[in-house]
């Protein structure tokens, strides 16, 4: 059980990149939200780098939707980048692909 | 009067049993883990291994792994089955053309949220899906077919 590794890099005043590695599931979703919530700030773009994300389930997807909503509420931006097919599949099946912009 | 027919019928049945083993599961695989979200990764791994043995494509394996995860979620997440048991029981039945997976746990009388993301995602991933609650046990059963095996 590899779990999920989350690392946050502050690029500059307006941009943070949160990189994921491993599996985003019902056991690790809370960990991601704890990392994302503080960086979802007004005027800030948060890019979620999914290149090394091997798995995501509907619980993990809910965190992404929550982050997207929060960013909208506070006047920030939340984007995903390098989304691998298994992760894309969940977004597609849940019909929420268009709800999270791609960076 | 029926005597001449009987041996023939028996012989015919035997031939079928010997020649057509489709639908017969040789050895079910059972996996019992703590009813805790951190063990679902282990159930996913087991499903992936068995799916690979069946010859599922990469896409089908991706779907199986997700389906089994979501099935476990129906027993472990709030707003779904109200599981009370300490264990999650998983059973995998390998058939020549499909894998049948049953996940169950002791639970209060309850039902999964069939309008939620979990159920809707799950139903799109598998060929058969049902839930049941009986005698204190909540159960989710799914079947994933191998398209390559059917050809």
Descriptive notes:
The complex is a heterodimer of chains A (103) and B (151). With 103 residues, chain A is an alpha/beta fold. Chain A contains 3 helices and 4 strands; from the N terminus they run ββαβαβα. A 4-stranded mixed beta sheet of chain A has the order 1-2-3-4. Chain A starts with a strand and ends in a 10-residue tail after the last helix. By secondary structure, chain B is α+β, with helices and mostly antiparallel strands. In chain B, 41% of the residues lie in helices and 26% in strands. Chain B is built from 5 helices and 5 strands, in the order αβααββαββα. In chain B, strands 1-2-3-5-4 form a 5-stranded antiparallel beta sheet. In chain B, β4 and β5 form a beta hairpin. In chain B, α2 runs antiparallel to α3 and α3 runs antiparallel to α4. Chain B is globular. Chain B starts with a helix and ends with a helix. The N terminus of chain B is likely disordered. Classes of the chains: A alpha/beta (103), B alpha+beta (151). At the A-B interface, α2 and α3 of A face α2, α3 and α4 of B.
The number of helical elements of chain A comes to: 3
What low-confidence regions of chain A span 5 or more consecutive residues with pLDDT below 50? Answer: none
pLDDT below 50 for ≥5 consecutive residues: which ranges of chain B?
A: 1-20
Major beta-sheet overview of chain B: 5 strands, antiparallel
Shape of chain B: globular
- Run of helices and strands of chain A: EEHEHEH
- Gap between N and C termini of chain B: 44 Å
Sheet of most strands of chain A: 4 strands, mixed
Task: Using the CA coordinates, give the radius of gyration of chain B.
Answer: 18 Å
């Amino acid at each position: 059980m590899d779990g999920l590794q989350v690392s946050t890099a502050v690029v500059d005043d307006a941009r943070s990149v949160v990189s994921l590695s491993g599996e985003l599931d019902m056991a690790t979703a809370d960990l991601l939200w704890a990392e994302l919530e503080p960086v979802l700030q007004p005027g800030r773009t948060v890019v979620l780098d999914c290149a090394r994300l091997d798995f995501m389930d509907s619980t993990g997807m809910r965190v992404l939707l929550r982050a997207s909503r929060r960013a909208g509420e506070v006047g920030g931006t939340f984007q995903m980048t390098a989304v691998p097919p298994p992760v894309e599949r969940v977004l597609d099946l849940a019909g929420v692909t268009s709800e999270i912009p791609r960076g | 009067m029926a005597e001449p027919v009987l041996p023939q019928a028996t012989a015919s049945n035997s031939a079928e049993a010997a020649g057509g083993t489709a639908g017969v599961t040789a050895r079910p695989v059972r996996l019992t883990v703590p009813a805790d979200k951190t063990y679902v990764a282990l159930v996913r791994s087991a499903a992936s291994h068995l799916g690979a043995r069946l010859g599922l494509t990469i896409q089908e394996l991706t779907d199986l792994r997700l389906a089994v995860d979501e099935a476990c979620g129906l027993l472990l997440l709030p707003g779904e089955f109200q599981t009370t048991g300490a264990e999650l029981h998983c059973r995998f039945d390998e058939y020549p053309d499909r894998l049948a997976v049953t996940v169950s746990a002791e639970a209060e009388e309850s039902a999964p949220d069939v309008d939620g993301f979990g159920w809707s995602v799950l139903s799109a991933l598998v060929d058969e899906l049902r839930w049941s609650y009986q005698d204190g046990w909540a159960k989710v059963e799914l079947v994933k077919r191998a398209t390559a095996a059917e050809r």
